[in-house]
Design a protein that fits this description.
166 residues; 7-stranded mixed beta sheet; Aminopeptidase
Length: 166
């Protein structure tokens, strides 16, 4: 578990620049190999962020688009969609200074517990090179599809037995 007490709040219109910044930082490594100028990279990432945001809004209507905060400061984003049978982890991303400290792991486990409490399977997509795959495999996910650089992963709904009265 993370030693940090983070809070979640709804994404607001005023958070769009921050959310775009989080997106851009999550792509910094791959973009560093593009050979493009800083301006070209910024323009490309802005276009990609806006396309992604529109896609998420259209395909996950009713989803939870959340900002992750630590001590009142935004540090990342968590997008979740709860369907009839499946909780979809649409996106989870933290600013680089907050990665590798257990914050993301803690948030993923909170969502897994939420799914378990409601008997839901959990699905997500992750890049083939993303080190978070190890976390997902340890949490019981398996690959159900591979498309380009993305793996679609699923963890079946956990069946919990009712508590036995003593």
């Amino acid at each position: 578990m993370s030693k940090y007490a983070v809070t979640l709040r709804a994404l607001e219109t005023t958070d769009m620049a921050f959310s775009e910044h989080v997106y851009a930082t999550s792509r910094a490594d791959e973009m560093s190999h593009s050979g493009w100028s800083a301006g070209e990279i910024a323009a490309f990432l802005s276009m990609q962020f806006n396309a992604q945001h529109r896609y998420y809004q259209e395909h996950f209507r009713g989803g939870e688009f959340l900002i992750i905060e630590l001590d009142g400061q935004p540090i990342g984003r968590l997008y979740v969609f709860v369907g009839k049978n499946t909780l979809t982890l649409i996106d989870i991303a933290l600013l680089p200074d907050f990665q590798g400290q257990g914050i993301g792991t803690s948030l993923v486990h909170q969502q897994l517990q939420r799914a378990d409490d409601h008997g839901l399977a959990v699905e997500l997509s992750v890049e083939t090179y993303n080190r978070a795959q190890r976390l997902y495999v340890r949490a019981g996910f398996h690959v159900i599809n591979e498309t380009g650089v993305y793996l679609r992963m699923r963890r079946q709904a956990l069946v919990t037995s009712p508590a036995v009265a003593s």
